[in-house]
Amino acid sequence: MGGLVIYLVIAFFLSPFVIHHLGNARYGAWSLAADLMGYYTLLDFGIRWAVGFFVARYSARGERDRLESCISSGFWGSAAIGVVLALLGVGLSFAFPHIFTKGELSAREVVPALCVFSATIGLGLPMEVFSFVLSGSRRQDLINVTEVTTRLLMAAGMYAVLKSGGGLLSVSLVQCGGRILCWSWNYVWAQRVAGPFSLRPSGFRFADLRALAGLGSVNIVIAFAELVISRTDLIVIGVFLGVKWVAFYNIGRLLVDYGSQLNGNITQSFTPHFMHLIAREDLAAVRRLYLLGARISGLLSIPLAACMFAFGRCFLRLWVGPPYVTGALGERSDVVMAVLLLALLPRWQQGISWQVMLASGKYRVLMFQNLAVAATNILLSVTLVRHYGMIGVASARAITSIITNLTWTPALVLHRFQVPWRDYLREGLARPLLLGLIMAGFSTAIVRICLPVSWKLLFAEAALTLLVYAALCWAIGFNRDDRRLARQRLDSLLHRFRPPAPGSDATGA
């Protein structure tokens, strides 16, 4: 959580700087390219994710030889695919200026930057295997430390190159260097956590690669459909409205994406624990952990969405400027943000459901569900963008998300793990919904009473809202067991920093 807070602070200060130095067209092109490049990273057949799944399983069962073979096979299989994808990315880089012709794009600047970007992604396929080794070993904390450190270095580098007049190529080179540093650190951590393992080509086993690809291929279809659902919007806007409007849309989407990352940071931390419990066939513990995760994610996501509704427009006005939150409703970033919040709130709440299903290795129903949602989302986006512009694209996503995540997804998970609806509603949803309603009323009232027209006032009101949220979360959001667990964790944390009593043996000898 601390790492995500640092990341959000970096984004808070750096994003407006990047937007204003690159301009709407160049920033829109960069955002659009990042989304497009994300698609072909899925062509690794899910091998990297499957490595994390099998590392968790083999470590839970003490199967050391199979664990080492799995890592080596996953690395070399991903490396071969990475070379091919890097070459495909270079070809896409040359085609990009000709596909998205609406806007002020310079091929001389865009193409080299995207070539570096493609090479970075191709190299990242095998190197990111090590972060999945750490994830499967339940050491997300090490991944977070590495990510935070490299993001700080990349932020400093991007600021320096843009301040000195650099453009897209300079930004891409800074990001490439940062990612290489991150992957190298994860490799060192993985060697220590999972135990020394060899990456010699002789350790490659085709049978292991086939098992990884077999599990990962179904998951990758799910991930591809998820990417289509979440990223098609920029492509549709870029094609039908022009890259300038990609910037306006993406600014509104940024805040919602940060909320998704915050929620995902919580729910994804449960996944390795679900994997270990399912590998041991302890379904009673899985059910208890699922209800706890549903309650925690709800206590975070529902009040967060309520506060973002209330403070979002004021924040954007101060953050990127009045032009993005004034004018016609269909051309405003804050309206995009509001509609996307309606779309993503149900998905945030069901984040824990997705994690337990992914940990179980039962993907086919999720695969078909996501494919249907993706196809529907594309059809609605292309239809609505012609009549309602950016808001139509955001509305298409809201329609599919609300229908899916309020009905089908919870029913599927509760049936799969035999969780009664009564327990889910009482232990997972009741307290978060009550807290969310209270916070929605409080945050809306405080903004109406005193409109935050400066950063000082906005931060003061946000701090007050946070204090009220913390008090109410402890009083009515947590149950008795939650409060007892929180006290134990707090005492354990304070004990690490408490000086030893006079005359005691600090070494414990």
Your description of this structure?
The protein is mostly helical. It folds into 2 domains: 1-204, no CATH class; 207-492, no CATH class. The protein is built from 17 helices and no strands. Helix 1 (2-40) packs across helix 8. The protein is globular and about 65 Å long.
SSE diagram, text form:
Blueprint: H1 2-40, H2 47-61, H3 64-99, H4 107-127, H5 129-136, H6 140-163, H7 168-193, H8 206-240, H9 243-267, H10 271-279, H11 283-320, H12 333-349, H13 351-360, H14 364-416, H15 421-449, H16 455-477, H17 480-497
Helix pairs in contact: 1-4, 1-6, 1-8, 1-9, 2-3, 2-5, 2-8, 2-10, 3-4, 3-8, 4-7, 5-7, 6-7, 8-9, 8-14, 9-11, 9-12, 10-13, 11-12, 11-13, 11-15, 11-16, 12-14, 13-14, 15-16
Total domain units: 2
Oligomer: single chain
* SS class: mainly alpha
Mean pLDDT: 82
Task: Please tell me what the overall shape is.
Answer: globular
State the main characteristics.
mainly alpha, 0% strand, globular, 2 domains, disordered C terminus, 17 helices, 509 residues, single chain
Give a brief description.
The chain has 509 residues and is an all-alpha fold.
